Amino acid sequence: MTVRSAGILLYRRSSAAELEVWIAHMGGPFWARKDARAWSIPKGEYLEDEDPLVAAKREFAEEMGVAAPAVDYHQLGTFRQPSGKLVAAFTAESDFDPDRIVSNTFELEWPKGSGVIRSYPEIDDAVWATETVARAKLVGGQVPILDALIRHLGIG
Predict the structure, then answer these.
(1) What is the pTM of this model?
(2) DSSP character for 138?
(3) How many CA atoms within 13 Å lie on the side-chain side of 138?
(4) Which parts of 32-113 fold into alpha helices (H)?
(5) Which has the closest alpha carbon to 138: 8, 35, 59?
(6) Are 137 and 35 contacting, i.e. CB atoms less than 8 angstroms apart?
(7) DSSP 8-state secondary structure symbol assigned to residue 63
């Protein structure tokens, strides 16, 4: 059975008219000390019969702690990740600026085999990043989502 996720890649133009995208650092001990290839678009799993945009907005709200912006979204496509997961990605222009990020959490035995169960945020940080920075920070399987945004905007 194929795992499906849906996510949102927000974008804006900085004061210098440079493209910026909203990306999130993955939480938990595996990602704690990593920066390069440790960021993601806000996303999460959904069921096959669920509307992917509805799922993307729900997952965005769960990971950011605030609702996805009330704007028009465009589907960039569906992207197969190295794990085989399919990610339906949506984009919209927005000057999203939350006061703070309050992500939902997950439980994990850490250190593995210790019997100690701890709670970790799914997302521990989120920022606006330039295309160049985002290209270095996003997990490799999501760089094609950034490329699709560039094509959609007709730049590059």
Answers:
(1) 0.95
(2) B
(3) 25
(4) 52-64
(5) 35
(6) yes
(7) H
- Is the CB of residue 8 less than 8 Å from the CB of residue 93? no
In this predicted structure, what is the pLDDT of residue 89? 98
Q: What type of residue is 120?
A: Y
Domains, the chain, with CATH or none: 4-153 (3.90.79.10)
Can you tell me the distance from the alpha carbon of 102 to that of 100, in angstroms, rounded to the nearest whole number?
Answer: 6
Which of 123, 137, 145 is CA-nearest to residue 66? 123
In this structure, are strands 86-93 and 4-13 parallel, antiparallel, or unpaired? parallel
Name the region of 15 (left: φ>0; alpha: ψ -120 to 50; beta: rest): alpha
Q: Could you tell me the pLDDT band of residue 108, with boundaries at 50, 70 and 90?
A: very high
- The amino acid at residue 138 is L
